[in-house]
Structures are given as structure tokens and as C-alpha cells.
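Re: that backbone. C-alpha cells:
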């Protein structure tokens, strides 16, 4: 087998302005990514990955290129059927896009890019976070994480683009925000896009599961804050108590009745909707699918 040293790590800096993703063909963006080395780190199953994350990170300094990584040989037509579809997207064009690989850090890119990679790696250390990253990387679509919000003064948002979805983090790059918005990207991919109470409850509960799992680790870094979505605006009322109780229980285990009740109560009770920002959205899911995406992200019960 041929060994390629770091032939593929050079990247030409971006020049000039770029159009928003929804005005361009996302697939054209891929060509610029091929400057990155493929380190042969195809996804393993969860157990293997956990082991790998715990071994010497410098092991990545001595890679060999996987025989499956044929995209690295073809910078014109990038075909990547086996995954790794999460990109740290450089919206301003002042540098390169970074392809996220769990367990690896990238000493380049903007401060925001570094924060996003850090949060993704923290996610990858959790059961729920790993499941999402793994599943997204198996998908055909690409997912882009940018640090720019456009239009309305939103803090973080996820929108569809022509080949996937883009997260616009706008400075909020903590693990909770990344997990929340990444779940929205997954919803979009699964035909469940749109700012609905339903989608919000799912994304809030998902990010809470990730945070609970990450911050229960003894080596966890960063701040744990209680998500406002979980705080009732009216904790003294029966409905307020019921909402908060439902959300707290959903963070531990899934229950369809509780989930639907939390969706019902989200509008009037959630602290996240105190200003009514979600009231412009439709109430239920867009696609009529009554099976939430959420249940498969809980720890399996087998013991
Ligand atoms: Zn949201």
C-alpha cells in the first residue's frame, strides 16, 4: 500500500465575497475542501470510536491514507459516499472550510471555528451527540456550520440549502447551542424542517440530553447552564409545573404522551418563548409524520 505523507493538507486562502449558500449550488463548495488530508479515519462503531477518542491524540500525526479515501485523489469531482459531512463553514471567505472529524482538532481557522470544533468533539464524547454526528455523516447531504447570521437578528438558526443545511451560530458556539442547531439540521434533512413548537421541543430536549451526558463526565469543560426552554415562565401554576416536569423527564427518557404535552405547553409555558418568537411558526410538524426523531437518541435500555 502506498503511503502518502501530508500531501493533501495545503489550502489556498479564500478570496473575495461569497454568496449566501441558498444562492449558490452547495456542491460547488466541495471542491475547495479537497485540499485537506484524508487521514483514513473512517467511522468505526461507537465502542471503537470511544476507545479511539481516549488514545493518544498524537497518533493522528502518523496517518496513512485509507484505500477508501479516494476522494483525496480527485479534487475535481468529490464523491464521498462514506461520510464525514459536517463542515466548519467559512462564511466570510477569509480562509478555508474545515471538515469535522471526531476526535481531531484543527489548529487553523477562526476562533469561532475552533470553538465549533471543540463543541462538536465534546458532543462526540456523548452517546446522544455521537449518534447524531454518526448518522449525519452517513447521509448524502452536507451540513455546514457557519458563524454568521443573515437577515433578522437571530442568534442561532439552521436553514436548508441546496445540498443540506447550514447552521448560523452567530457567536454561540457552546456545546448546547451546537447540539440544538445540529439537531435542527437533522430535522431538515429528514423532511421535518421549520420553526415549529414540535421541532423546538425536540431540539431543546436533544441538546439537554447531550449536555447532561457531557457534563456528567468528570473531565467536562465549560459551563453547564439550564436551558431556558426547560424553565417555566409560570412555575407557580399547575400548567407551568406540568411543563417543567415534562421537560425534565424528557431529558432522561422518552415518553410520547409527555412529549406531545410538552409541545402543547411550549407556547405559553417555555421560558424560550417568553418573547413569543416561536409564535409565528406552525404548531405541529410540517410533514405530518407523527413519529418523533428524538427517541432513537436516548441510551438503549438493554442491560
Ligand atoms: Zn431551535
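Recovered sequence:
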Amino acid at each position: 500500500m502506498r503511503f502518502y505523507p501530508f500531501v493533501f493538507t495545503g489550502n489556498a486562502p479564500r478570496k473575495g465575497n461569497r454568496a449566501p449558500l441558498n444562492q449558490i449550488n452547495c456542491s460547488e463548495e466541495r471542491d475547495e475542501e479537497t485540499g485537506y488530508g484524508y487521514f483514513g479515519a473512517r467511522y468505526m462503531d461507537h465502542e471503537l470510536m470511544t476507545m479511539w477518542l481516549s488514545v493518544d491524540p498524537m497518533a493522528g500525526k502518523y496517518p496513512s491514507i485509507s484505500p477508501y479515501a479516494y476522494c483525496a485523489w480527485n479534487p475535481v469531482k468529490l464523491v464521498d459516499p462514506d461520510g464525514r459531512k459536517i463542515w466548519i463553514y467559512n462564511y466570510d471567505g477569509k480562509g478555508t472550510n474545515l471538515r469535522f472529524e471526531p476526535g481531531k482538532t484543527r489548529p487553523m481557522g477562526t476562533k469561532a471555528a475552533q470553538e465549533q470544533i471543540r463543541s462538536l468533539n465534546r458532543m462526540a464524547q456523548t452517546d446522544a451527540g455521537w449518534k447524531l454526528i454518526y448518522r449525519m455523516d452517513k447521509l448524502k447531504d452536507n451540513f455546514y456550520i457557519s458563524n454568521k447570521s443573515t437577515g433578522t437578528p437571530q442568534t442561532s438558526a439552521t436553514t436548508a440549502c441546496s445540498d443540506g443545511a447550514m447552521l448560523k451560530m452567530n457567536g454561540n458556539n457552546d456545546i448546547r447551542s451546537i447540539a440544538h442547531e445540529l439537531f435542527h439540521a437533522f430535522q431538515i434533512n429528514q423532511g421535518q424542517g421549520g420553526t415549529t413548537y414540535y421541532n423546538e421541543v425536540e431540539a431543546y430536549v436533544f441538546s439537554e440530553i447531550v449536555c447532561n451526558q457531557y457534563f456528567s463526565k468528570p473531565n467536562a469543560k465549560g459551563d453547564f447552564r439550564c436551558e431556558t426552554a426547560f424553565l417555566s415562565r409560570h412555575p407557580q401554576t399547575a400548567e407551568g409545573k406540568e411543563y417543567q416536569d415534562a421537560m425534565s423527564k424528557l431529558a432522561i427518557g422518552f415518553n410520547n404522551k409527555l412529549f406531545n404535552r410538552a409541545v402543547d405547553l411550549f407556547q405559553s409555558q417555555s421560558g424560550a418563548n417568553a418573547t413569543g418568537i416561536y409564535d409565528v411558526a406552525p404548531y405541529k410538524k410540517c410533514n405530518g409524520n407523527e413519529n418523533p426523531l428524538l427517541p432513537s437518541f436516548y441510551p438503549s435500555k438493554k442491560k
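The longest strand covers residues 142-146. DSSP finds eight helices and five strands in the chain.
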